[in-house]
Amino acid sequence: MPSTGALALSFIAVVLALVGGWLGGELVDRLGIGVDQGANPDAPSSLSQQSAVKPADYPMHKAS
Hints:
Radius of gyration: 20 Å
Number of strands: 0
Oligomer: single chain
Order of helices and strands: H
Structural class: mainly alpha
Helix content: 40-55%
């Protein structure tokens, strides 16, 4: 049987995970914050003045 401290820490961890998931959902759904669709491993740094490649110019899936 787990100790009371272990159960309390597990409960706190679950609550924090739920709150973090809810806040992340708010950012994406309500505020429309997400990852740039032109993001890729060769995209410029977000600290530079360059923008990421436009989604229309970057093929996500090439036909075989």
